[in-house]
Amino acid sequence: MQRNNIFIIAHRGYSSKYPECTELAFEKALETDVDFLEIDIRETKDRKIVIFHDDDLSPKTSIKGNVGDYSFDELSKVSIEAGFGNKYGFQPIILVDTVLNKIKGNTVRLCVELKDVSRKYIDGYEDFVVSKFREYNFIDRLVFNVRNLEFIKVCREKYPQIPIALEFMPDSYDSSGIDSYINIIVSLGIQIVEYDFQKMRKDVAYKLKAKGIAIWPWTINTESQLIKALDMGADAILTDDPWLIKKLLSVN
What we know:
Blueprint: E1 7-11, H1 23-31, E2 36-43, E3 49-51, H2 72-75, E4 94-95, H3 96-103, E5 109-114, H4 125-135, E6 142-146, H5 149-158, E7 164-166, H6 175-187, E8 192-196, H7 202-210, E9 214-218, H8 223-231, E10 236-239, H9 242-248
Parallel strand pairs: 1-2, 1-10, 2-5, 5-6, 6-7, 7-8, 8-9
Antiparallel strand pairs: 2-3, 3-4
């Protein structure tokens, strides 16, 4: 297998080997020379932006409640275990600023999943988030990843320079329904569709590609999964194990 300009995206960092969404996981991903880091961002009670996947803290930390229930100062004292226990010592919840400072001197890009607007539009949220990335002069190295079509419409109107990845494709539509949904995607100026590779149909992938829409499957962690993703025309690979994918794609 050859890379052929396929982006390698470290899903929550090097999350197969290190606790996801931690500074350590992102550092280790950068050591594999990935093209993108994929980060999930959420707003805290005191309006800070932290990196954490779930709204509910309890599955991956020692505290209960949601991210938005706590200030950043409180969250910074919480370690992300994410199935690793204390193997790597204290790995705190971090601000997005931590990653932005870490990568400002290289060329890696960010795929940013906006978790707070996954299900509903929050008025002004796009301005709130964009202002943070502008602070680091990072607008031209972003892809926003979101499910909410209303947010996408507003964001595309205000910030057309930021590519949008739609993290959803219906898997139960008939052919005409899929065609209608793809037409909506095109009309909104969505350039990328991220999808669960286990659910994506090859005919749908080909229809997206025919419309000039890139397809980024997740989460690809084995050779057989990679073969399936490439067979569907994947333009990028989201993976928990960037070193393995890099090796399989014969990237030197």
